[in-house]
Amino acid sequence: MTTTQRTPGHVSEQQARQVAEAARESEWRKPSFGRELFLGRFPLDLIDPWPAAEPRPDADEFLGRLAEYLRTEVDGARIEREDRIPDEVFHGLARLGAFGMKIDKEYGGLGLTNLHYCKALTLVASVSPAVSALLSAHQSIGVPQPLKIFGTPAQKQAFLPRLAAGEVSAFLLTEPDVGSDPARLGTVAEPVEGGYRLNGVKLWATNGTVATLLVVMARVPGKGITAFVVEGDTPGITVERRNSFLGLRGLENSVTRFHDVLVPAENVIGGLGKGLRIALTTLNTGRLSLPAMCVAASKRSLAIAREWSAERVQWGRPVGRHEAVAGKIAFIAATTYAMESMLDLCCVIADDDRNDIRIEAALVKLFASELAWRIADELVQIRGGRGFERADSLAARGERASEAEQLLRDLRINRIFEGSTEIMHLLIAREAVDAHLAVAGDIIDPEAGLGRKARAGARAGAFYARWLPTLAVGRGQVPGGYAEFGPLAHHLRYVERASRKLARSTFYGMSRWQGRLEHKQGFLGRIVDIGAELFAMSAVCVRARAQRQDAPEGMELADLFCRQARLRAEALFAALWDNTDALDVKAARRALDGRYAFLEEGVIAPPSDAAWVAAWQPGPATVEDVRRRIPPLP
């Protein structure tokens, strides 16, 4: 019987920060468009001309077969209705090779590029977001991707062929009382003869109820958080619950308990103590799968909005002709174009492997998850009462079963999945100020001695003497700048000017708050959101110019999007310094202290004295195992 503790001792804010800092990739070995953008530089040559995708006839053929299978064999409405992906869908996807899209051909996979993989996920999500989430969690963060980057030849040979053939994988990091703060991770891997003994409970493991191979993050005493490949049917593993959610009906998501689970030493991925770095590195490209699903939902939203608004007549005109609705349709169309442009650009530059895309991938995840949710909300508004009505209810009375309310429910999780919006703001902001911390970090570090502070002051003086003058003028102030982009040139001039303004704003914020800047999350969030808008504007302009012969309408959409994005960016710039952040913090503290509890009177709350976070203790399961095993292919 194990004697491990449920959680490590009290973890201070500083300790939590140190764990996160140790896990991030600290070096920049390749150029990064996003990093330069936040530094006030606009390296358009990194993305222009639009990078050419590698020709892949085999991938195009697969996408054709996948589309036909989805069109004829997958019933998204049935999955939504029954809250379950049928076994035959698992089998059909396995026969197509969909579980091995990102696995190299030498291990039985398709070896798709990021671009083709995301095109596939977009297709799947248009029929069933739950199936797309299944495939994404399996390949983007599950066993295949960590092994592809960090696995040994023996690990790849042992596990990847099984996964390519249709076995399902899952990624287990989150715990009942540990979310984005991995320093408090409670699952322990205790060294024993021949390997490790796992004890702990994991929450919200997508695919957890059906997975036969797991990536499990656990703390090895004295070594740190480590990643393991774990066989899903190992004795001591119990799937205690299948969780149910607002959207993504059909998602197989679990609470999983590990009690004295023995894992061979050869199943450690990437070395002891490397778990968080593996997770973050995997997510650099893994995050691209969520925007693919957002693109799918946005495309469906545009189609529904267009067809409905052209047919529905109110006050003598189609509703789409009324300005109030027209503005919503324009927003949906322009933003969908931008979202797809950002995603395709990120995929192609990830595939050519010449650029570091950690910031860009995070930006497109942030942008797409936030804007797709707004798109779905606007669609529900356009559809009115029918937008609030379920598709099966519409069909029951003879109307087209358009899934507006389902889109809204399914998209909501993307603002939380794989890094909530708030965490993404902090993650991207940390990368955005990396150059400043590299030269001046010791100045604001309370643990740095006078000698370190003096040396940092000298470095900072030299750096800022060179850098600050570059933020004064640039190509964006030249009337003919970016003339090769024709009617879009003035938007790129704006991006260049705004990039320098963004860098100056960041510097002013550091100068003003110094070490307290990390607590100014409202300021940092706006800095990041401005960067996302500038990246999106850059992507649409470069794409529209590259495709203007084949798709001239792209120039119209790029111009429209840039005009909308500029308004949002300017509002964010103004809010950097004119906001209620400090007052909000005070009000929140008062609310937490109960000062405003009188506002909660006059309503009836559901009777419950259950804990907000369920406690757990090491030990064997006391409930029935609810795992689901997909029968072998017939």
TrEMBL record:
GO terms for molecular function: acyl-CoA dehydrogenase activity; flavin adenine dinucleotide binding. Belongs to the acyl-CoA dehydrogenase family. This is Acyl-coenzyme A dehydrogenase. It catalyses: a 2,3-saturated acyl-CoA + A = a 2,3-dehydroacyl-CoA + AH2. The keyword Oxidoreductase applies. Keywords: FAD, Flavoprotein, Oxidoreductase. Pfam families: Acyl-CoA_dh_1, Acyl-CoA_dh_M, Acyl-CoA_dh_N. The keyword ATP-binding does not apply. Residues 59-167 form the Acyl-CoA dehydrogenase/oxidase N-terminal domain. Residues 170-261 form the Acyl-CoA oxidase/dehydrogenase middle domain. It comes from the Bacteria. It comes from Couchioplanes caeruleus.
